[in-house]
Specification:
Helix content is about 70%, strand content about 0%. The protein is mainly alpha-helical. About 40% of the residues are buried. GO terms for molecular function: guanyl-nucleotide exchange factor activity.
């Protein structure tokens, strides 16, 4: 079966259903209905066109018939509904659909039973399907309006059930979604047939009637108001901006709708007020460009008035009303375009009040909590301020492309308005002395005359019209001249005389005195006649003008019952136009014009108070009249894609001048809810962002200073900080504000540093800010402080990545006691869990750990370690503030932290620092290092100066000079003070020297300083080790630098000799020292003649010889090694006197007494250990004997040829003989050494037979003699 067949069958089925009902109730319906249904059934048998209205007619007749009961009508409506749902109507069935609507609309249900309501529900369903049908676009305005009106009627029926009301309301909602959804289509194709603006206008008018429905005798009047508000809100949301395309709809909105909404502002019903405010918001979102005057009235009369009601009256009942109004204001504030449009359209237009300024002042004032209690109203005001600031901040982006032409126009308008307002205020407050005041400000020329004053009055719309009329109405000559010139400034050409009079009355209010009126009319007649030929002379113009004034009074004075007719008016003016009559048509037009539009003095309605609602018709009429004569409303949607400009800057200025800072300060102290705190934190950051964008550095300073001062006030102790959540969000706000304004902080850095130092004193800074770079020892551990107390301080306040606290500073575990007493009670109050396993110190550490984590989330470490991102001026301010803290702070811990920050900043930005900055930095470091009394600060200043110098002394000459000054100062310190700096100074110099580019140290003056430092290093036990490292680092440079005088080597050697002669020698250090003097000797050997080398050699072996006699075995071991190297490797001296001196002063004494065994050494020592000591003594003698023999053999030719060979040989033999025997036992080692020497001497025939005889007498060892002579 095809679709047409299915359609016919469906219609047949509905006919059968309806006929069955008619048969069941035969008395309720005439026979004609049955016959028509039977006829339709017969027609369907021949498959006629089912789209014909004929097939719908029987059903429609039953529906609209007065004799059918509701049950039968219900069945017929169900059939119609079914046909519509099945889509029996084609998209072009416009005539049929309109017929259906007209028929269904006439369905009358007069009874009030539940079954009747079922029928009405079916009726609503049919209406809705008619509008959903494809052919619904062809419905006429009358059809759509009748549908809507009938739905309203159903809703407004008496004794209707709640279900039917809700159904009717829902149906209206869906109808509005459909019909107002076509507003845009209507605007695009005005030729389209079907419903359009006409029905929409009627609907809007009906809604306006419902909104303003005030018949309180009707118990459902509130429900009707709510329905009207609900539906108009739906209409506005659905139509959106398209509704503004139709002037007829705009006219209704401007007049009836807005007037009814304003009347609702006086309601006591919070729900109605809430709906009203929402409608107002959507109204201005949709068609604000057409409601410039209305928006001003609403802001003044509705929003701001109600929002301020609670604080002004203190009435608790008003709290919720104020809350609703504020929520609506916040919604407006959240629209970024609207805030800028408020400013440009109102604050920049002299014809309007400064709405944005008033809004800003209102929000700042009412965000300020009363009695330190931050309530919901304060929170809403804060949200409003945040929304406004955010709307500005979101466009504070330099990446947006500027377009300054349009914005420049607004700036000029704002500036002109300020001039108008200021100059008008001067006149309005003093009409006698205003001229010199205006001249002083440049608003009037110095040679001011009546014309200039008249122009000032004519051009300044802010002048008070009443005071202007009083001034020009005075009889003084100057005032009269001003009036004459004022009237002469109007353009009367081609302007009707009544319109000319309207223009004048709109510019000033003429006093009612007859003389004044006569003078004004006379001067007006003179001016008007000069530009118009229709009046033949001034007198004629005078009479005509007066007649118009009299006519205006006659027609519009409510106390006059009898009104002048047009004929009487024409008759009264016969022969007054220079003896002739005015054209009758001309006078008729004047009469009708005055009758339709009275001449009135201009009255600007900016607000309508609640007590004035009774005169709403008159007041609102003046609002409408004003709305016809205002400039266009500037739509600024495009500006959202442009960067913020001068207008936004002025907007922010207005907010600031409105008390924003005081509001924020109070809110910081009193805000408690999480939402308020979050909003406040965001607001502070956004304010800083905007201020930074516009370079409002004073604003930033004030914001940061307040935040930091408040933070410091709340952080006297860790416990206070832990228990004050406010302090954390204040810190987050301060840091967030600083991060977005980092290049504009300048003096604000000082306040931020105060916060940092406070956190440091509490030991809760993140590790990123308290890790210090320091010099390390051979094992990689940081050098200890000068005292144990300083070491403990270090670990309390700072960390080092390469240093772990030694066991000596870790306290032993103590017995754990249960927390009790005041402290336990306090921590319990703070919410810190206490138990028997935790000491008070444990609890404190837990608090510190938790606080530190929160501090870390604030990002404070990012702020203070990201100096690379600062612009040069901001970087300079940051460093300058740190330097200032170093000068004024008395707490060492704080100064040290500032020093570390300065150093890290310098190292990160050294190439960007200016000459002035370098000088200031080095001045502070030098002053701290060279302070009169030693402090830890001095030590850290020295470390940091060296750190900077090591890395960058080649980049900036001032660093070298500064280090030289410091080294010179150090070299002059007494031992007690020097020892405090020694290790770090030595470590720093070592690093500097190891770099290989510290040639600036080798000048004569600097060399003397270094020598003095080296002497101090070596002679002070605590710094000897690091001092020797400096020696080792220095020597390679001396070797490479051939220009260095040899006296420097001699000085170095003398310093080492001074150490060797000190009381307490440390074997490892002595070993290092012997290595040093051997390097010195070798360096000299490479650089100079043998005679000079000989001098250094003698000094060297002399010192090594003394060391070989040291009581400590380890010292003797490496001393003998060094001495052996010095003697055996330096045999090229050809002077016997040098060698003889070496034997006599160095080698022979070693054989005679290798070292001294004192009583002290043997005291309390066991015999075994004493014997071991004596054995060691003999071994040392053997070693000395060996060295002596080796030396003789090395220089044998020189020995043989020396002049005192006999004396030398006999002394040598005598010493050697002493080593041969040990308690009558032959010392095998010595025996072999002497035998070897004797054999060589024998083979070389170096000595005479006589000398051999003397030798054997001294040796007295026959076995040795036999072996040598065999």
């Amino acid at each position: 079966m095809n679709s047409k067949g299915r359609t016919i069958n469906s219609i047949k089925g509905e006919i059968h259903n309806l006929l069955a009902v008619l048969r069941f109730l035969p008395s309720s319906c005439p026979e004609t209905h049955t016959e028509e249904l039977m006829d339709l059934f017969q027609k369907l048998l021949v498959c006629s066109d089912v789209d014909s209205v004929d097939y719908w007619a029987p059903f429609l007749k039953i529906i609209q018939g007065p004799d059918a009961n509701s049950a039968i009508k219900g069945v017929a409506l169900s059939s119609i509904h079914k046909f519509l749902l099945y889509g029996f109507l084609s998209p072009t069935s416009d005539y049929t659909l309109n017929k259906i609507v007209n028929g269904v609309v006439q369905c009358i249900i007069d009874t009030y039973s539940s079954s009747d309501e079922v029928v009405l529900m079916k009726l609503l369903q049919v209406f809705l399907e008619c509008l959903r049908a494809p052919a619904s676009i062809y419905l006429t305005d009358a059809s759509v309006w009748s549908i809507s009106k009938r739905c309203f009627d159903v809703y407004e029926r008496d004794r209707v059930s709640e279900l039917l009301k809700k159904t009717a309301q829902n149906t209206l909602l869906q109808i509005f979604l459909i019909v107002f959804g076509r507003v845009g289509v209507i605007s695009q194709n005005k030729e389209t047939s079907g419903y359009g603006v006409v029905c929409l206008k009627k609907i809007l008018l009906h809604l306006a009637h419902l909104i303003g429905y005030s018949d309180k005798s009707d118990i459902s009047f509130k429900e009707k108001r709510c329905l009207g508000l609900f539906l108009i809100n739906t209409a506005l949301e659905t139509a959106g901006e398209n509704i503004g395309l139709h002037q007829d709809l705009i006219s209704v909105i401007q007049d009836e709708v807005c007037k009814s909404l304003l009347l609702n502002s006086a309601t006591d019903d919070l729900f109605i007020l809430s709906l009203t405010l929402r409608v107002v918001f959507n109204l201005f979102q949709s068609v604000k460009q057409h409601l410039k005057v209305q928006q001003e009235v609403f802001f003044n009369s509705l929003h701001l008035k109600i929002a301020a009601a609670y604080e002004e009256t203190g009435d608790p009942i008003m709290f919720q009303r104020s809350e609703l109004a504020l929520e609506s204001i916040v919604d407006f504030c959240r629209e970024p375009t609207l805030m800028l449009e408020l400013y440009t359209n109102y604050d920049c237009d002299v014809e309007f009040a400064n709405i944005f300024e008033r809004l800003a002042k209102f929000l700042c004032k009412h965000a300020f909590p009363l009695n330190s209690s931050f309530n919901r109203l304060n929170e809403l005001c804060l949200e409003g301020i945040l929304a406004i600031i955010t709307s500005i901040s979101m466009r504070c982006d330099p990446n947006l492309q500027p377009s300054g032409e349009q914005m420049q126009d607004f700036r000029e308008k704002k500036a002109m308005k300020e001039i108008f307002l200021k100059s008008a205020e001067i006149f309005n407050s003093d009409q006698k002395e205003f001229i010199p005041k205006l001249q002083e400000l440049g608003y009037l020329p110095k040679d001011c005359d009546a014309l200039a004053v008249a122009k000032f009055f004519k051009e300044n719309p802010a002048i008070d019209h009443e005071k202007l009329g009083d001034y020009m109405g005075k009889k003084h000559d100057f005032n009269v001249k001003v009036l004459e010139n004022f009237l002469g400034l109007f353009d009367y050409k081609s302007v009707s005389i009544d319109q000319a009079m309207r223009n004048i009355f709109k510019s000033c209010r003429i006093p009612g005195e007859a003389q004044v009126v006569d003078r004004v009319v006379t001067l007006f007649a003179h001016a008007y006649h000069k530009q118009n030929d229709i009046v033949k002379d001034e007198n004629s113009a005078y009479v005509l003008a007066f007649s118009i004034m009299l006519l205006n009074t006659d027609l519009h004075n409510p106390s006059l019952k009898s009104k002048m007719s047009v004929e009487s008016y024409i008759r009264n003016l016969q022969g007054v136009n220079g003896g002739d009559n005015f054209p009758e048509e001309y006078l008729r037009r004047l009469y009708e014009s005055i009758k339709a539009d009275p001449i009135e003095e201009k009255e600007v309605i900016r607000t309508i108070e609640h007590h004035e609602m009774g005169d709403m018709a008159n007041k609102w009429g003046k609002v409408l009249l004003r709305s016809k004569n205002v400039d266009n409303y500037w739509m600024l949607n495009e500006l959202l894609r442009q960067p913020a400009g001068e207008n936004e800057k002025l907007m922010f200025d207005l907010l600031w001048e409105s008390g924003l800072l005081g509001t924020l300060t109070s809110a910081i102290e009193s805000a408690s809810s999480p939402r308020a705190i979050s909003d406040l934190r965001t607001l502070l950051v956004e304010c800083s962002k905007v201020a930074a964008y516009f370079n409002m550095n004073d604003y930033i300073l004030k914001l940061i200073s307040i935040l930091c001062q408040c933070f410091v006030k709340n952080t006297e102790s860790v416990a206070q900080l832990y228990s004050t959540p406010r302090a954390f969000y204040i810190l987050e706000a301060a840091v967030g504000s600083a991060l977005v304004a980092k290049d504009n902080l300048f003096n604000a850095w000082g306040h931020l540093i105060n916060c940092l130092l406070r956190l440091h004193k509490l030991k809760v800074l993140p590790s990123q800010l308290i890790e210090l770079d320091d010099f390390v020892d051979e094992d990689g551990n940081a050098l200890p402080m000068a005292t144990t107390q300083l070491d403990e301080t270090f670990f309390q306040y700072f960390r080092s990545s390469n240093y772990s606290q030694s066991a000596s500073f870790i306290s032993e575990e103590e017995p754990v006691e249960e927390s009790s007493g005041i402290w336990a009670s306090f921590v319990k109050y703070l919410g810190v869990p206490t138990n028997s396993y935790k000491t008070n110190e444990d609890i404190l550490q837990e608090m510190i750990s938790e606080v530190r984590e929160k501090i870390l989330t604030s990002g404070i470490h990012i702020l203070f370690v990201s100096s690379k991102n600062l612009e040069l001026e901001g970087l300079s301010s940051y460093i300058t503030n740190l330097l200032q803290k170093c000068k004024v702070e008395t707490d060492e811990i704080s100064v040290v932290l500032c020093l570390e920050l300065i150093t890290s900043t310098v190292l990160s930005n050294f190439s960007r620092l200016t000459e002035t900055l370098w000088k200031n930095i080095l001045e502070v470091l030098e002053n701290l290092i060279c302070a009169e009394t030693y402090t830890w600060t001095s030590e850290r200043a020295l470390v940091n100066l060296i750190r900077i110098t090591v890395l960058h002394h080649e980049d900036y000459n001032g660093l070298r000079l500064s280090l030289q000054n410091v080294l010179k100062y150090m070299s002059q310190l007494n031992t007690g003070n020097f020892v405090r700096f020694g290790e770090r100074l030595a470590a720093g110099l070592t690093i500097l020297l190891n770099q290989g580019n510290a040639y600036f140290l080798y000048t004569a003056d600097n060399w003397q300083t270094i020598l003095k430092l080296l002497q101090n290093f070596v002679l002070i036990d605590k710094t000897t080790r690091t001092g020797l490292e400096v020696f080792i680092s220095l020597l390679p440079h001396l070797e490479k630098n051939l220009d260095i005088d040899l006296s420097m080597f001699d000085n170095l050697l003398e310093i080492v000799k001074m150490y060797f002669r000190s009381e307490h020698l440390d074997p490892p250090l002595v070993q290092k020292s012997t290595e040093i003097i051997m390097k010195i000797l070798k360096s000299i050997q490479k650089r100079t003649e043998s005679e000079t080398v000989c001098v250094f050699w003698k000094k060297t072996v002399g010192e090594l010889g003394r060391l070989c006699q040291n009581n400590k075995h380890s010292i003797r071991v490496f001393s003998y090694t060094a001495l052996q190297e010095a003697i055996l490797n330096f045999t090229n001296f050809n002077t016997w006197a040098v060698w003889r001196e070496c034997f006599d002063k160095v080698l022979f004494p070693l054989v005679i007494e290798p070292f001294v065994i004192t009583k002290e050494m043997l005291k309390g020592v066991s015999e075994e250990k004493a014997q071991a000591l004596r054995n060691e003594y003999e071994m040392s003698r053997e070693k000395a004997t060996s060295l002596v023999c080796q030396t003789v053999l090395n220089i044998l030719p020189m020995v043989v040829n020396c002049s005192d060979l006999a004396g030398f040989w006999l002394r040598l033999v005598k010493l050697l003989a002493q080593t041969l025997k040990n308690k009558d036992e032959v010392n095998e080692r010595s025996y072999e050494l002497i035998k070897n020497l004797f054999l060589i001497m024998k083979n070389e025939n170096a000595i005479s037979e006589e000398l051999w005889n003397e030798t054997w007498v001294l040796v007295n060892l026959e076995a040795l003699k036999n072996e040598v002579n065999s």
